[in-house]
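Researcher: Sequence of Alpha/beta hydrolase fold-3 domain-containing protein follows. Predict its structure.
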Amino acid sequence: MASLQIPEFLSSPQIARKIPDFEKYHRQRSQTSPRNGKPCIAFNPPDPNMSDIKLAPFNIHTTPYKTIHGVDIPAHILIPKSLASNSQPGSRKYPVLVRFHGGYLVSGSALYTEWLPPWCIDFALQNSAILIMPDYRLLPEATGQDILEDLRDFWAWFAGSESTGLLAYLKSLDAGVDVDFEKVAVFGESAGGYLAIRSSLLPRNSWGNAFKGCKAVIASYPMTLLRKDWYSVASETRSPFGAPQLDEGVLDAHIEGFEKGDGSKVVVSAEPPARLDLAIAMVQKGRWTGVFERAGGEGLWLEDVVGEFGGGDPEGGKGAYHLAFHGMGDSAVPWEDTKEWVDIWAEKFGEDRVKGVWRVGMEHGFDNAIDLKDAEGKWLKEELEVVRREWLGA
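Model: Prediction complete. Tokens:
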């Protein structure tokens, strides 16, 4: 087999700092692992027991929140070690921060920490919060409806009973921690920002255990208005992360490969740069929206869903507090879409329920370099304080 060279643009620090074996990645792209007689696949899934300095302050627990076609879709529950050391006899309730990873809904994984900004970890630790990071099915094997189903199923598991959901799992750990369902916030970066926002717009009367939805939603450089030209019309000048124009044949061959099967191939994890060529080709060739909506568009478009949302708390009728920020030099996701989205949220819920921050010249993923203790991080620290008050009520 000829040696395969990793494209220069895929080795960019903005895309991935830890590059897996690229030749191995290309071999994996054509392979599946049978499970219960059905094909399934996960690309370079991170080891939940891996040693990672970012995750050192947590005890990490992984459990499936659903299984489909014999494939477990995991939620990773990160409990600060400080909570365990401070626990008294019996369980104490703690706030929760749920985080969804990015990757155009095509690549990425919950435990890929190069895309997990340090401020998110600090924000959880400073507020004694349990950090929960679910994986989900990925395009193009999955559809937008599949991903939306996973989102709903995750939150159903999250709010489930003491015998079936998150509470049951925490009880089995005997870790002395419980969930305060009145103090839940959600965060996502890029495509994860879309999932975080969509989570906050799920019907609040569908949950149990006192969970009535998220109190705050943070979206960094989020994908929002997914029917716009950026995702649906081909362009020869679109260059996420400086990528050259990619061959559409790469995408065609990939789709043809899994369509020959019985439709049960499931991808739930892809450590970058795996599959980023597919994602970028989908955007450059204007095919991302078509792949996303090919099983129907109902419930997928934020601008439609927010208009149908029945309000927030029964007493107050207000939506979750929403912080969105975006670099104005973003080559991967248009910052102008986020600005338009913030205006839509403000029109629905009020200008006091949303804050948009636009950072001049900043590229996608710029917040990975932010330290909340430095002067450069002052703006984010101040905005997170507003989020904290909405989230924790203090």
